[in-house]
Amino acid sequence: MLAVTGATGFVGQALLDRAVAAGVYVRALARKPQSPRAGIEWIAGDLDDRAALAALLDGAEAVIHIAGVVNAPDSAHFEAANVNGTLNVIEACLACGVQRLVHVSSLSAREPELSAYGASKARAEKLVRASGLDWTIVRPPGIYGPRDVDYFEMFRLAKWGIMPVPPRDGRASIIHVDDLARLLLALVPGGEEVSHQVFEPDDGHKHGWSHYELARAVGWAMGRRPWVVHLGRKSLERAARADRFVRGRKARLTPDRVGYMSHPDWVVSPFARLPAGLWQPQIATREGLKATAQWYRDNKWL
User: Fold this and answer.
1) Among this protein's residues, is 117 annotated catalytic?
2) CA atoms of 296 and 34, how far apart (whole Å)
3) Active-site residue identified among 117, 144, 151, 260
4) DSSP one-letter code for 19
């Protein structure tokens, strides 16, 4: 029995697909009614619902905590979802006797001073470390793949032939959502190699990707050769204000995101790699981007 929070999100859906295929029985938390699915028991509620968390964790062997907020209007919303939500999961684990916790954090937790989002993920990590549980923290870099709405913006811009990206000197790691889902399941049993450890997985591309390289790779996946334009921090801030004006609360480029997008180093640390015998990425990024572009077309996103 595996308990999962955030099961209806981008990463959560990929995890459910993997778990069901592997014959793992999953109990998943969901705020809205979900269609019945073999191998999955849906629990109605959210991270503030103690009764729902108790039902989620009753009899579970482990919990994968994915739920959280990536976009929010202010630090209070990040705090409520990412920090308080994690604390509620920890307290429910302790009350129900569930010892194993795989916590999905973010690479942004390395630099909490850059954004309210990163600060909230760093505070959540501190709670996990102090919980007394058998924990493992995973800090994914940028996650792409089918159903993703963030990297989708790059694919859409590539279709238009122009791709504004962060400053020229920046580099970042990325990972395909299916590789991440495989990793999260591989970590569930725990053990000496992974317990009380923080891991930073990626696609295996050494030294990450420059913003230019990644933009051109997305362009290739779309069958285009887009004009790549590097934007400085002030230009990104203006773009964030424009995005908020056009899309309101649905804006993807927020002032908070500008903080960490302007940072030059979002490459995973070689000192936080997974044991090679446990997990390695399987999806080559160029082919993963190409398949993702096709998924967007097939599902009428592009």
Assistant:
1) yes
2) 23
3) 117
4) H
For 111, other C-beta atoms within 10 Å of its C-beta total: 16
Q: Which two tokens stand for residue 93?
A: 């684990």
* Domain residue ranges of the chain, discontinuous segments joined by +: 2-144+175-204+267-282
Within 10 Å of residue 104's Cβ, how many Cβ atoms? 25
Of the two residues 259 and 152, the one the predictor is more confident about is 152
Q: What number of CA atoms fall less than 13 Å from residue 55's CA on the CB side?
A: 14
3-state secondary structure of 63: strand
Integer-rounded Cα Rg, in Å, for the chain is: 19
What is the number of residues in the chain? 302
C-alpha 83, offset from chain centre = 16
Q: Which of 34, 17, 23 is nearest to 1 (CA)?
A: 23
Q: Which CATH architecture has domain 2-144+175-204+267-282?
A: 3-Layer(aba) Sandwich (3.40)
pLDDT in tens, 180-221: 999 999 999 999 999 999 999 999 999 999 999 999 999 999
Contact 4, 12 (CB under 8 A): yes
Is residue 264 a contact partner of residue 230, using CB atoms and an 8 Å limit? no
pTM, two decimal places: 0.94
Q: How many CA atoms lie within 13 A of 93 on its CB side?
A: 28
Token output for 221:
């996946």
DSSP-based three-state secondary structure for 2: strand
Q: Calculate the alpha carbon distances from 37 to 2, 42, 188, 228 in Å.
A: 15, 9, 22, 43
Q: What is the DSSP string of 78-124?
A: HIIIIIIHHHHHHHHHHHHT--EEEEE--GGGG-GGG-HHHHHHHHH
CB burial readout 63-81, b (16+ within 10 A) else e: bbbbbbebbbeeeeebbeb
Confidence of residue 66 (pLDDT cuts 50, 70, 90): very high
